[in-house]
## 1
Amino acid sequence: MHEHVTDHYVQRAKAEGWRSRAAFKLMEIDEKDRLLRPGMVVVDLGAAPGGWSQVATERVGSGGRVLALDLLDMAPVAGVEFIQGDFREDAVLAELTFRLAGRPVDLVISDMAPNISGIAATDQARSVLLAELALAFAAEHLKPGGNLLVKIFQGEGFDAFRKAMAAAFDKVVVRKPKSSRDRSSEVYLLGLGCRPHSREG
């Protein structure tokens, strides 16, 4: 708790009006890789409390669209369409698909993480499953050339997931933002250039 309260990024988030320190992770990756541009359609998976949605809606502007989804409730973010529900359930995915109304997505961002049980193997398996779900959604809904940014923890299943991403995108790179705690095994995989054939089937 002390680490959280004294954390530089937590203090900055409060001072600058961001919902969470995670906002800085997305900003840093975006500054490096230029993911967010005006007019884009962005889907934010695992959005609560809303830090990434805030950054996304600010950068896509009034001509863009941000759809956010989370199991937890999220206080409204101006310009963001929020769906509360479990991403693993078909009905929730159907609602998200309905809201898109056939419009292809430019960017999928996923900061989803499982509820930590403390059992490392279980937590790792859940983390990989959430990343796989994000990849499946992205492969179906991204426009050709679209991008996916997804959180995953290094460990069992990481290499296999990275290979699965490499099959769906022209390029896959690892990003570890400065605002991600050093002792955390979390990294972000960025899939650049969704291949058109990954949308089939």
## 2
Amino acid sequence: MIPMQAPLALDHDDARLLEELVSVWNAKRNRNVLRTVYFEGKQAFKDFGISIPPQLQQFGTTLGWVAKGVNALVDRSNLEGFVSPGMVDDPYSIESVLTANQFYNEFPQAVQSSAIHACAFLTVSQGDVASGEPEALILPRAADASAGLWDSRRRAVRGFLAVVSVDEADMPTEMVMYRPEKVVTLTRQPAGGWQVDIRRNPLREVTVAPLVHKPDLKRPFGHSRISRAAMDYTDAALRTVLRSEVQAEGFSAPQYWLLGASAKAFAGNARFKAVMGRVFGLTENSETGEVPDVKRFEGASMVPHVDHLKMWAMLFCGDQGLSPSSLGIIHDNPSSAEAIYAAKEDLIIDARQANRSWGQGAVKAVQLAVRLRDGLDVTPEPLLKLTAMFTDPSMVSPTAAADAFTKRAAAIPGFAESEVGLETAGLTREQIVRFQDEQKRKAAGNSINALVAAAASRRAPAQEVAADGGTV
């Protein structure tokens, strides 16, 4: 729990909102940190205290299942750009805003954070141009370093707190609070007080765009991709791995029982020699005259542990919508193309829904940045129709994409030259832009050649008459 007392420089409404936001941050922080720990594979081992000796409980066993589940979804979310039916040639210079903020580099990082913690945020503020910042500054914020309050009537964030930095005791040293009419920066001083800097917000709305994973009516800030079931399955799989280590250490080797032998033959170093040696002999028992009889018993099989681990892997795959091969579960019979697609269908559906939600947050951030840069009170009509364009999460093979493009181009006039057609062919946004630029240059060159040819044809008759008349 992190206590926080509102600075005296804040008015009553600001102080009350700050305390509410800090309370939300405190309430959610432990769960956010826990999911980060699972994502990084650093969770504490949970033992039942039955079959695993203390020596092996400190064994550094980790499983990358949780990270695999998160990245499998995030890797299918590839933002290509923004499109709008009412805009041609980027009249609002959106790409310049995105380039100045390295948006295409940082947006995937924010998406990954959203999948881990259920949500992430993009804050938009006026940049310090003199120090090299862009006019409109877009910054990603992780949920474990921020807190937000949702207005269900306006369907927007009504208050937001970004914890910019903390000290060694995890106490905030710098925070930024976003309100509809102002942005408040709080910096803790060495003496213990707080310096408060208040800037007016010209947009009159909270300049924060949430990136939410699987929102619902009860939880507008979404659900984490790292579900409770996924964490439980990972803990159980780790116990299974360590139990197999215990068996491999002490029970997998064959056992030998020598009947009629003297126990003195295996005392001290002789016992080690008997275990590690390949060939050894024993004399008859001098007291009874019996010759030792050797009985061999096979060690315990590792197959039950492997099957147990496969069970947890299958349960994890079912929760995350993964195919078993993603976790290294290889079947004897290779799967067909249809079976492979069916195994990934749940993940593809999740990716499309996530892209829709994350795309809305990206569009909101772009709209806020353009308005803040240009000093616009309202969002222009073309920007209201702006949508985020993602690569198809199904990731079909190049052969299948080419086949679909050929069939559609033959049936739909003009489809092959359209942007939609080029996307169907599997071209990226960058490749489409380059292709269109090349087509424009070729068209311009052809037009110039046509004009030159037309001018030459008009001059040709006059030159003929001049030749016939013998004059120049």
## 3
Amino acid sequence: MKTHHINTPFIVTKDISNGNGFLLAHILYDKIKSIAAYPVKEFYLQDIPEIGDFKFKMYKNAFVNDKLTIQAQLVKQNKEGYVVNITVTKEKAKANHQERICSALFDFPAEKKYSTNRTAC
């Protein structure tokens, strides 16, 4: 079984920032949405289905040259599907801890089981 906790580095560049150097929120959302699928890949035989529901909250801005860490963790698994928690942090200057930039929860539906009504000839 693969790990259900992923840490991915992400650097804010000028290309994904506005004129003031702030990271564009939709860019960050797209990135964490793709990373949210990593902890649940092994549960699907085909492509991972579209996210059923999500919550996304920004706490702080990130700026050009900030080094972020995107953490994805499978936090719930049941017959209806899977829930992945995302936390984005950056190292706080002059301190020995991480500052939370945003968090999100993504719901992935369980893979549908297809049945056939074929009868033998």
